[in-house]
């Protein structure tokens, strides 16, 4: 089947679904839905429907961004708009079926809004008028919550694989790279390196086997946008990988996911299977002569496995420890072949960049930060969520408009951005814009998009201790300065939080941090001092009060708290009782 | 339940052979074995070393690096509590304390009665629902210490799901 025929078929099925005489019930089942009980609600829903002998189509979809409203369910009846119900429970689903599905009446206080050209079903608001939706401009997450991640035809009907088809049928690989370069797209994994430039490093190599790796290790606490894309719309990543493969002349793609994150793993593998069946992956894609294959590779639990050379070690089945560079991955990558590593988000933008053009993408955003920011908002706000917004919003807009403000009786004290190696900002930072360069200048990074909001009840020393404990826990142990330095830093921060600090502790931390920065191979050691360095200027009072007065201003350090310590063995160990033959 | 040696070896070889992803490595084999039988016995280290043409030391070096591998049979039910920064801000340390007290444990480990295996988790990936715990790999968000204990009591009477 050629692309046009495929598109026709997909459009037909999509129209049939949208005009189905049976009600279509969509349930958000990304990580946020899972944790709030969406699967238990689906189970209950299925049993109610079979008991009452009601026919309906149940679709598991991804995340609309409104994680606070999960489990979020919407029902579309023929000729009506989609009606959204928030925070559905195994109890309330019964009422929804009874009142809306059967009797077509509903207490509208239990609905969030409607979506569709048919207008409101009752007098509920337009979902698009909610600030959490209105402020969003969705590119990578354009289909999330709307299409079923398990159905490739729904993706194609919504313009999917159109970018790939355009690239293969009317663009040279160099045109694709130019398009991505001109769009100003910068890597969303944390380093913000221009994606098009990165791709061009791989073009020069004549090796017939070249890899495009996609990094969804995402061990960052506070970030869940990569997993969100894979769970909500895995095909946009596959299309991005295919476009990157065509542009760089690569032969294989590898999607790297942490073992245990079954939602993203299963949905990506299902998507790969469907794409292969339709000839979108494999040999001679769309008759263009371009061959490309994608597989999923799993890692054990290791944050450092998200570092590009450590990731390659893990793909090869080894300990995920970073390699020396040079040689750089573009010359000597996974299995010694030329490789290029991109974040899920960066790749997921490229189908739309190719379809709509570089100019369109670069018109969104500000300065040298083009496109959108995929913000994972969590912590002490009313409406935590996964919001894709144009770059350039202020942090105040993120907290107040997207996040619905601070929780009751709380005021803003701190923001932790860019993952555990990122930075901590104070309450005076809310005028800062989400812009890679502006945030870096302020001593934080936008990184992979996690923003954790802390209220006045949060002790800065306590939070710093958790961040340092995380970095200690996750140090891979290859470089002395990081392995020993993180332990040393944790010891000092624990001393401070236990009111047992010693003279010169603050200076000692700076000295240890400096050594780590100078003597570590990868970002984990180089930036491991980041949380402390950025917290001190904003919260010197908190630190001083612990050190000099023995008082925790919020009282949260008064009771000893459990902080896990790593037991990751640093050297190769022997198994007792096993002999090497 | 620990199987006898021959059955165990058979399960291990089957697990290694059943991998459906094209690239098979030491790490992928170990993950497949742990998925199948719940832990990495010494026999698994040996079999992976043979199949991957490497040494037992090299294989154990990989297995011991990743904290998700365990080397003894797990108990009936798994409990994981997230202690990442968001969960910490939302009160996960109280959950950790309550769960440890209930299980009569001081740190990660297995309860004496064979019911629960408890682990810390650095991030369960559902930060918007913090604090989050995982019981038999099902996530529960926005949860309190009391609710956590209640759910743990409930899964105790459910079918063992140790893998």
What general outline of chain A do the C-alpha atoms trace? globular
Helix content of chain A: 40-55%
Report the count of strand segments of chain A. 16
CATH architecture of the largest domain in chain B: 3-Layer(aba) Sandwich
CATH class of the largest domain in chain B: Alpha Beta
* Proportion of residues in extended strands of chain B: 5-15%
By DSSP, the count of extended strands of chain B is 5
Structural class of chain B: alpha+beta
| Adjacency order of strands in the biggest sheet of chain A | 2-1-3-4-5
Low-confidence stretches of chain A: 570-581
Mean pLDDT score of chain B: 92
The sequence of SSEs of chain B as H and E is HHHHEHHEEEEH
Largest β sheet strand count, sense and barrel closure of chain B:
5 strands, mixed
Helix residue percentage of chain B = 40-55%
- Tell me the greatest interface: A-B, 76 and 60 residues
At the fold tier of CATH, the topology name of the largest domain in chain B is: Glutaredoxin
Domain module tally of chain B: 2
| Rg of Cα set of chain B | 17 Å
Our count of helices of chain B gives 7
**How widely separated are the two ends of chain A?**
54 Å
Would you mind describing this structure in some detail?
With 581 residues, chain A is α/β, with parallel strands linked by helices. Chain A is 40% helix and 14% strand. Chain A contains 23 helices and 16 strands. In chain A, α12 links the parallel β7 and β8. The termini of chain A are far apart. Chain B is an alpha+beta fold and 163 residues long. Chain B folds into two domains: 61 residues; 81 residues, Glutaredoxin (3-Layer(aba) Sandwich). Chain B contains seven helices and five strands, in the order ααααβααββββα. A five-stranded mixed β-sheet of chain B has the order 2-3-1-4-5, covered by helices on one side. In chain B, α1 packs across α2, α2 runs antiparallel to α3 and α3 packs across α4. Chain B is elongated. The interface between A and B is large, with 76 and 60 residues.
């Amino acid at each position: 089947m050629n692309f046009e025929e495929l598109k026709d078929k997909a459009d037909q099925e999509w129209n049939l679904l949208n005009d189905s005489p049976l009600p279509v019930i969509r349930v958000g089942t990304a990580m946020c839905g899972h944790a709030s009980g969406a699967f238990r609600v689906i189970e209950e829903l299925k049993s109610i429907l079979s008991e009452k002998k009601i026919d309906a189509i149940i679709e598991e979809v991804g995340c609309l961004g409104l994680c606070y409203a999960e489990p979020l369910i919407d029902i579309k009846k023929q000729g009506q708009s989609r009606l959204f119900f928030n925070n559905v429970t195994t109890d309330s689903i019964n009422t929804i079926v009874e009142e809306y599905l059967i009797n077509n009446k509903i207490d509208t206080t239990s609905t969030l809004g409607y979506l569709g050209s048919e207008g409101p079903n009752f007098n509920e608001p337009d979902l698009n008028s909610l600030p959490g939706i209105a402020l969003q401009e969705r590119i990578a997450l354009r289909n999330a919550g709307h299409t079923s991640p398990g159905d490739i035809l729904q993706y194609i009907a919504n313009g999917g694989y159109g970018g790939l088809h355009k690239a293969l049928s009317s663009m040279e690989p160099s045109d694709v790279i130019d398009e991505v370069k001109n769009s100003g797209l910068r890597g969303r994994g944390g380093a913000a390196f221009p994606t098009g430039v990165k791709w061009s490093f791989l073009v020069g190599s004549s090796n017939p086997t070249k890899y495009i790796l996609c990094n969804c290790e995402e061990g960052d606490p506070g970030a869940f946008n990569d997993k969100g894309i894979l769970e909500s719309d895995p095909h946009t990543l596959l299309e991005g990988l295919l476009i990157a493969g065509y542009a760089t002349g690569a032969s294989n793609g590898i999607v790297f996911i942490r073992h245990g994150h079954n939602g993203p793993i299963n949905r990506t593998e299902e998507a790969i299977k469907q794409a292969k069946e339709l000839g979108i992956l494999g040999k001679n894609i769309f008759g263009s002569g371009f061959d490309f294959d994608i597989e999923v590779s799993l890692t054990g639990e290791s944050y450092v496995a998200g570092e590009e050379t450590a990731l390659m070690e893990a793909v090869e089945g080894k300990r995920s420890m970073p390699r020396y560079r040079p040689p750089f991955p573009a010359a000597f990558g996974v299995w010694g072949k030329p490789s290029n590593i991109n974040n899920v988000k960066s790749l997921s933008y490229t189908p739309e960049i190719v379809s709509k053009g570089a100019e369109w993408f670069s018109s969104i955003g500000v300065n040298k930060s083009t496109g959108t920011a995929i913000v994972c908002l969590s912590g002490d706000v009313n409406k935590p969520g996964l919001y894709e917004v144009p770059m350039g919003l202020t942090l105040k807009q993120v907290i107040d408009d997207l996040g619905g403000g601070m929780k009751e009786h709380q005021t803003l004290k701190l923001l932790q951005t860019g993952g555990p190696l990122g930075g901590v900002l104070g309450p005076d930072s809310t005028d800062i814009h989400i812009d890679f360069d502006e945030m870096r200048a302020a001593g934080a990074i936008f990184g992979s998009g996690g923003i954790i909001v802390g209220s006045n009840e949060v002790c800065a020393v306590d939070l710093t201790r958790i961040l340092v404990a995380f970095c200690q826990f996750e140090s891979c142990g290859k470089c002395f300065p990081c392995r020993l330095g993180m332990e040393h830093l944790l010891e000092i921060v624990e001393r401070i939080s236990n009111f047992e600090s010693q003279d010169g502790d603050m200076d000692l931390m700076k000295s240890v941090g400096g050594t780590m920065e100078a003597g570590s191979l990868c970002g984990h050691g180089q930036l491991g001092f980041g949380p402390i360095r950025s917290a001190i200027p904003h919260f010197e009072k908190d630190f001083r009060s612990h050190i000099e007065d023995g008082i925790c201003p919020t009282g949260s350090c008064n009771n000893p708290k459990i902080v896990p310590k790593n037991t990751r063995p640093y050297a190769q160990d022997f198994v007792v009782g096993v002999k090497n033959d | 339940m620990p199987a006898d040696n021959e059955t165990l070896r058979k399960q291990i070889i089957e697990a290694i052979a059943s991998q459906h992803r094209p690239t098979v490595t030491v790490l992928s084999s170990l993950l497949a074995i742990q998925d199948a039988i719940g832990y990495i016995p010494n026999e698994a280290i040996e079999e992976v070393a043979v199949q991957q043409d490497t040494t037992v030391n090299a294989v154990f070096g990989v297995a011991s690096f990743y904290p998700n591998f365990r080397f003894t049979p797990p108990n009936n039910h798994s409990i994981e509590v997230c202690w990442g920064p968001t969960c910490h801000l939302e009160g996960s340390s109280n959950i950790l304390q309550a769960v440890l007290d209930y299980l009569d444990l001081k740190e990660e480990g297995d309860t004496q009665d064979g019911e629960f295996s408890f682990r810390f988790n650095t991030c369960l990936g559902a930060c918007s629902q913090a604090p989050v715990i995982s019981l038999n790999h099902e996530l529960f968000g926005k949860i309190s210490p009391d609710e956590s204990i209640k759910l743990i009591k409930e899964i105790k009477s459910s079918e063992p799901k140790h893998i």
